[in-house]
Amino acid sequence: xxxxxxxxxxxxxxxxxxxxxxxxxxxxxxxxxxxxxxxxxxxxxxxxxxxxxxxxxxxxxxxxxxxxxxxxxxxxxxxxxxxxxxxxxxxxxxxxxxxxxxxxxxxxxxxxxxxxxxxxxxxxxxxxxxxxxxxxxxxxxxxxxxxxxxxxxxxxxxxxxxxxxxxxxxxxxxxxxxxxxxxxxxxxxxxxxxxxxxxxxxxxxxxxxxxxxxxxxxxxxxxxxxxxxxxxxxxxxxxxxxxxxxxxxxx
Length: 251
What we know:
Layout: H1 9-13, H2 19-30, H3 46-61, H4 77-88, E1 91-93, H5 95-104, E2 111-115, E3 125-127, E4 148-151, H6 158-168, E5 171-177, H7 178-183, E6 191-199, H8 200-203, E7 204-206, E8 220-227, H9 228-250
Parallel strand pairs: 2-3, 2-4, 4-5
Antiparallel strand pairs: 1-7, 5-8, 6-8
Helix pairs in contact: 2-3
């Protein structure tokens, strides 16, 4: 159905195009389109707003009434809010708390892998946006083997990050919400140390673009230390010991 000029209402009103073709063409253009939500304003996505407006006008001309119904269920406010704030750089972990945590677990990161222009914690950093001072635009595209990593990514990146830490066998600090840590704990590498930062209103600093009465998302922030290389060496030692024991038994 692609190729129909859905913005030309005159042709539709004259009967040249049946309404079902108009709607099919509109919905075809909506297929695969994603929208974003601003936590403060919550506007409709500009990418699909004009299409929805045209559909509404045509249905209204045909005296077709649209009813909407809210399906009850828990709001995923914590996950969405934390992820969106991380993407747009509207919050930052207090540097004092982060430095204290580094000292307590005896770990000094050398690369802030998922920084933002307004919340980077280290001089060596990677950004998801263009920045002349960043060593790379996307940290997932560079090797991690030579760095000790500080990982505070958008929530949607966490599964890919865990896979990459295992593949590159690195030592890293991973900052993530408590609910994610507990729900997907089985997928994480062995945790060497864990520090609880606290609730988001005590840990996060509001960014400059956040409005005065905009609240930070709820939840507890955790930091875990993982060392895939050390874990792999330990597993290799255990396997060698088991192999040596079996050889002794057979001999």
